[in-house]
Amino acid sequence: MDNLQNRKLRYGIVGGGAGAFIGVVHRHALALAGQFELVCGCFSRDEENNASTGGSLGLDDARVYADFTQMAQTEALREDKPDFMVCTTRNDYHYACCKAFLEAGFHVMCEKPLSQTQAQAEELQRIAHVKGLLLGVSYVYSGHVMAMEARSLIRAGEIGEIMMVMGEYPQDWLIEMAEGANHGISTWRIDPQIAGRSNCVGDIGTHIEHSISFMTGLRIEKLCAVMDKFGAGTALDNNAAILIKYSNGATGSYWCSQVAAGYDNALKLRIFGTAGAIEFDQEKSNYLTVVRKGGAPQLWSRGRGYIGDAAAAYSRIPAGHPEGYHNAFVNLYSSFADALRDLVSGRLRPLEQYDFPTVEAGVDGVRFVEKCLESAANGNIWVKY
Amino acid sequence: MDNLQNRKLRYGIVGGGAGAFIGVVHRHALALAGQFELVCGCFSRDEENNASTGGSLGLDDARVYADFTQMAQTEALREDKPDFMVCTTRNDYHYACCKAFLEAGFHVMCEKPLSQTQAQAEELQRIAHVKGLLLGVSYVYSGHVMAMEARSLIRAGEIGEIMMVMGEYPQDWLIEMAEGANHGISTWRIDPQIAGRSNCVGDIGTHIEHSISFMTGLRIEKLCAVMDKFGAGTALDNNAAILIKYSNGATGSYWCSQVAAGYDNALKLRIFGTAGAIEFDQEKSNYLTVVRKGGAPQLWSRGRGYIGDAAAAYSRIPAGHPEGYHNAFVNLYSSFADALRDLVSGRLRPLEQYDFPTVEAGVDGVRFVEKCLESAANGNIWVKY
Amino acid sequence: MDNLQNRKLRYGIVGGGAGAFIGVVHRHALALAGQFELVCGCFSRDEENNASTGGSLGLDDARVYADFTQMAQTEALREDKPDFMVCTTRNDYHYACCKAFLEAGFHVMCEKPLSQTQAQAEELQRIAHVKGLLLGVSYVYSGHVMAMEARSLIRAGEIGEIMMVMGEYPQDWLIEMAEGANHGISTWRIDPQIAGRSNCVGDIGTHIEHSISFMTGLRIEKLCAVMDKFGAGTALDNNAAILIKYSNGATGSYWCSQVAAGYDNALKLRIFGTAGAIEFDQEKSNYLTVVRKGGAPQLWSRGRGYIGDAAAAYSRIPAGHPEGYHNAFVNLYSSFADALRDLVSGRLRPLEQYDFPTVEAGVDGVRFVEKCLESAANGNIWVKY
Amino acid sequence: MDNLQNRKLRYGIVGGGAGAFIGVVHRHALALAGQFELVCGCFSRDEENNASTGGSLGLDDARVYADFTQMAQTEALREDKPDFMVCTTRNDYHYACCKAFLEAGFHVMCEKPLSQTQAQAEELQRIAHVKGLLLGVSYVYSGHVMAMEARSLIRAGEIGEIMMVMGEYPQDWLIEMAEGANHGISTWRIDPQIAGRSNCVGDIGTHIEHSISFMTGLRIEKLCAVMDKFGAGTALDNNAAILIKYSNGATGSYWCSQVAAGYDNALKLRIFGTAGAIEFDQEKSNYLTVVRKGGAPQLWSRGRGYIGDAAAAYSRIPAGHPEGYHNAFVNLYSSFADALRDLVSGRLRPLEQYDFPTVEAGVDGVRFVEKCLESAANGNIWVKY
Question: Do C310 and C175 lie in a common domain?
Fold first, then answer.
């Protein structure tokens, strides 16, 4: 029997044609990982782009599809069908795409957000559970070695009981919006039809929520959100500040922005406990600041001997040789592959023991956006989670 | 007539005996400034400490007082009386001390907070206005050259219209409280009888409020505050997160903490506008990060040729020779002295054209604490300012 | 005719078996690049490691070779032979391996150093020139986008005439050596038979030399080197400090170390001109500090609009999404592939117009090590270059 | 008997008139220290400046002198004569000024360099020894609390045996010189008649030498110096790179520059031992980076509980409240005052147990400059120390 142990895993992908961002990143990272093989794809709704991308990747024309539903159904019939599918479409297709793959019996890795509504996310969750399929959601920042190390340290009680969490994620790529007229910005992220009901919180605020949840295990009890739409005629939020109360009594403060001059992509998490603190900055993802109460801040470096085994297992190159954005995807997919192989060979452990974000994280992410919207729409009230 | 132009200004001080912190800092800074002369004092409620401090400072015994009211009244009768008085007592004496000095006809510089209630602050404001006396409040961080430069740049429109403000002020000196029992911490700051109704917001949150107000001129329209009392038996807040809506539509998020492991005294302000951004960190107070939309972040340095005249006037030593905490006090007192000399010589300009925090800032500071308390006490609701 | 334009380039590799470092990095990077296909290999002198590595990579057993000479000769006869070969062996095989490939008519990319002696390097240079073959040397750090941007800015005269260069490259992975006994360190880098006559200068000092040469075009006129062997019984240098005079009158100071506690892999270059300065730190390789005389230091970020076209062409993901060590290799191989395709289609430009280090850089690198050894062996005298 | 225990110490000063830099800093720092009283001065060779400075400082006209020799002789006759004198003139007067004061029986604190030649320095040393007078030299950077902490840690063996030292001190205030014509720069520092035979090494290189010596106790065995005079018509060095061999076998590399674009005053020292490393940066003088072999770099902060008693004794304000340039002078003078009081009361300990730089440091500093000049003048040869 093929238990996937001694061969590369086959995958198909939706998205990633010429001009795309995140789909290309997934494909490159899957190549970097060294254990995956692309066998089919649906790269673009533009026919020519789709065909030429498939060709340049060496795919058989027959396995380059105009439509993901067709891809799901056709590929499901092949003996050498993909071991899993990857969905990297625009937000508005995530739900339909995942649904098509799950119903055709495929495991799936989907870009975040899992869907545009919580109801959709929960439906996907049900399907995956019923069919016993893996459904991962690529919250990439939890794939960094030092994000995993942060989680390990926190779980081991190194910083004590958590009291406060400061999470921020500023960017400035939409700052032209803030000056009033649209300045000709063309991106589906600011179009409610495609992006969904939120732009900033949905795109990046949700990464704060996931990273914090991943590292700390804290559960949100209630939140109070201010969602700003800076610039005349702006339809969706481009800045948000959110207060959180967690169920353990800790307080959180999140800030995300797409109009913060000078910031590239600065997801930064600071977690404070009774015995110490941890700080993670994804733009310096090879490092972690670790403080023990009474001691001096320490700058931990990926690849060093003091890093715990669980995180170190993902480190591929020595300290000082930076692993970057692609490497974080490699780590998520490596963990996804571990789970897949374990599943096929009947040795699947509880999913929380793996290191990729599961459908539960995907549902949480969609709920977070909905709760922020609910708070903001009702005068920034506190909303139960 | 003595118009104060060609001599040192004489001052008396309350506080600053052996073992004191902030009173000693004021006295040292006044010496560093080079234009002030200590002539009388009431240094400690401990008789011996009071006497020995006065002696070591070379004061005539007759001008070392056991009581600030007595000092006010006695000194007011002298021909060579102080030109102004300095109040650096514990919070619970600020109001009474300032009142005594104002009523005796003295100009005053008072440590923040100006008082424990807004009503008291407004009373002091009225007295000062009626009597035509200067009443400064030493929000020291606005005394840094680069804080002044930030203000100048913002006023000149360099960052456009302000959209968001992120202010934070973490410390960890009370982290032992967070672990439960008091661990024998002995400080009046955690005693409601002395500190007033707030510890953390009153002591350091108020610095965020003042610095932002000083730099931006933004007015708070409403706020929503979470004030935490981490640790069993903790009577006053030691951590707070606050959302702000300013009258111009901008959003603010403030965080202050005394239980944030690894932080010394990290007041950091980030102000984002439609055309750029500015970041000031008091622990690196000789620098300012300046971003123009589309450009790379620049690290401006105090003492360099590109610093504007208004701020540069306070720079005493060349770039790269750090000015620190004492120097910020020097700057506040220098501006206070300028105003005092102008007042005496009949050339006083509107007070907002000087660079020291006035009684209006003091009233604002007390109001800010009260509004945070009101929000927190009522379920963290939004409170009109 | 097959002009390589519309297909992946085929390559064979020597090195990179289980347990190897740099060979695996090359292979991973070539996968990440997306335009290369591994077709044959000689992964390890250990037969089992060699076979299992080849198998896990999906290679035909017939194309997994025990010997690189055999691989060169056998593959040269195939119609679907590799378009180029990659040499990632230990230092002592670089010369023989490159020679075998060149003589069999293959283009080659070789790890640095190109050889153990200058005479060998020059021989390889001659063979490559005579046969019209590309011979690249993977000085990886010049592959970073921001290293290329530094070069562009300097070439464009942005910092004026260069006066001083400070280059450093500290690590600490051999610090146990410094305490005396060997502490059981087992690495061929400290074995003269394998590493050659230098450890530290040969392994990392040479990266300083290459990066500076790449960015500035400066030519060394003379140098004075101190090469330390800290720890009892240490056979090769593990620390070196080198003074340089360049032919334009500029002064350089280089430092490399493998016993500098706290440093991972901190190649840092600072280049000072009459009109400004540039600083590059490979551990923060997505940034560049740029100073114009009289202005504030600016932190430039890869992927931003102000980055010049030449460097930006290599940027694959947006600013703030870190590109790391693998990405720098991707860039070198991409440029190598450009040259290869241009060569095959008869449009090869002068090699200095491409962005990968050529055999000339390889020869320079070996000469640099020899000159340092000559200086150190003769009492740290100044040696003509 | 007046043993100086219960009163402020009286001092006279040479230098510090209007427009002066370092003399004013000394005077301000002496005021900040709180235990010194200015009683006489010779502030400027400009009569009016001298008189008006004295007047503004409240000095009796009779104690404002046109000439330091006259001041020495006249003041020596007073009963209330100064306890010590401070020399802050231009370099060319240091020797004569110190000599006049010593011969009149005064203890002296002198700005560095102690003199323009080693012979002069040694003569001053002899006079001070014979007369039993204290002669301090204000190498200010060793006055920082964290510089003292570095010394304590190194003395205690925390970083093991020292192997390498990297010292640098770049500035850019003379960068206009580097472009060729003088650009009208007017400063005595570039005039050999006043500055002496070196500008850059004499002004700032000597601070590297002193700080390293202070922290480590290492003795220089030989050195090799390149001293650059960038810009047409430049008479004295404005950049230098120096290799050092210490008597314990350690290697040093120093770099100082006045033409390094973007740098203010960046004295930075890195000291590497077999067991760890320490880094001090005077522009961030409230911190120290401490590394223990195998551990993560730690950022130590002045004022924290883990700081040793010897250094902590100089800390006046809590961690996070920056002490700056003035505070370092305060510390030097405090230690000088301790020694003076101990001397007067017959309890003087060996001078190396105090924390101010003594005449021995002054002699070393002048020798360092001479040795660099000797190396540079002879083709950058190695020179015995």
Answer: yes
Here the CATH number for the domain that contains residue B28 is: 3.40.50.720
**Mean pLDDT across chain A, nearest whole number?**
95
pLDDT the model gives residue A131: 97
What CATH number corresponds to the domain at position C262? 3.30.360.10
Number of domain units in chain A:
2
Rounded percentage of chain B residues whose pLDDT exceeds 70: 98
Q: Confidence class of residue A183 from pLDDT cuts 50, 70 and 90?
A: low
In this structure, the answer to whether residues D98 and D233 fall within a common structural domain is no
Q: End of a domain among B114, B137, B160?
A: B137
List of chain B residues whose C-beta atoms are within 8 Å of the C-beta of residue D32? 28-29, 31-32, 326
Contacts of B8 in chain D (CB under 8 A): 58
pLDDT of A182 over the 60 cut: no
A300–D296 C-beta distance less than 8 A: yes
At C183, the pLDDT band (50, 70, 90 cuts) reads low
Angle formed by the axes of helices B325-344 and B22-33, nearest 10°? 60
On whether residue B336 sits in a domain, the answer given is no
| Higher-pLDDT residue of C5, B123 | B123
C319/A324 Cβ within 8 A: no
Task: List b or e across A50-80, with b for residues whose CB sees 16 or more CB atoms inside 10 angstroms.
Answer: bbbbbeebebeeebbbeebbebbebbeeeee
Residues of chain D with pLDDT under 50: none
Neighbours of B341 (CB within 10 A): 17
pLDDT, position D178 = 84
Cβ atoms of residues C32 and C326 within 8 Å: yes
Is residue C311 one of the residues assigned to a domain?
A: yes
CB A288 within 8 A of CB A280: yes
User: Are A297 and D299 a contacting pair at CB < 8 A?
Assistant: yes
Nearest one of A251, D304, A151 to B172, comparing CA atoms? D304
Would the pLDDT of C101 be above 60?
yes
Q: Decide if C297 and B298 are in contact by the 8 Å CB cutoff.
A: yes
Q: Is residue B22 part of a domain?
A: yes
Residues B72 and B110 reside in one and the same domain: yes
Out of A253, A261, A274, the one facing B255 most closely (by C-beta) is: A253
Closest partner residue to B325 (CB to CB) among D8, D284, D321 is D321
pLDDT confidence of residue D184: 58
A203: closest CA of chain B, how far (Å): 19
Residues A24 and A119 in one domain: yes
Strand ranges (E), A199-328: 220-228, 239-246, 251-257, 268-273, 276-281, 287-292, 298-301
Q: Which residues of D touch C272 (CB under 8 A)?
A: 257, 259-261
| Shortest CA gap C8–chain A (Å) | 8
Kindly determine whether residue A31 and residue C27, on different chains, have CB atoms separated by under 8 Å: no
Task: Give the pLDDT score at B186.
Answer: 65
pTM score, two decimals? 0.97
- DSSP H/E element including C41: strand C36-42
Query: Can you give the residue range of the structural domain that contains D172?
Result: 142-309+365-384
Residues D382 and D385: their CA atoms lie apart, in Å, by: 9
For residue C153, the chain B residues in CB contact (below 8 A) are none
Note whether D15 and D38 are same-domain residues. Answer: yes
Strand A220-228 with A268-273, pairing: unpaired
Residues C106 and C243 in one domain: no
Does the pLDDT at position A1 exceed 80?
Answer: no
Distance of residue A300 Cα from the nearest chain D Cα, in angstroms: 5
Residue A184 has pLDDT above 80, yes or no: no
- Contact assignment for C239 to D163 by CB distance below 8 Å: yes
Does B318 sit within 8 Å of D323, measured CB to CB?
no
**D156 and D304 co-located in one domain:** yes
Q: Which amino acid is at C142?
A: S
Closest Cα of chain A to B221: distance in Å?
14
> For chain B, which residues score pLDDT lower than 70?
1, 180-186
Last residue in a domain, options C112, C137, C162? C137
Tell me, yes or no, whether B170 and B270 share the same domain. yes
Residue D276 lies in a domain: yes
Start-to-end C-alpha separation, chain D: 46
pLDDT of residue C189: 85
Averaged over A341-350, what is the pLDDT? 96
Are the beta carbons of B296 and C298 separated by less than 8 Å? yes
Percent of chain C's residues with pLDDT above 70: 98
Chain C positions touching B304 (Cβ under 8 A) are 296
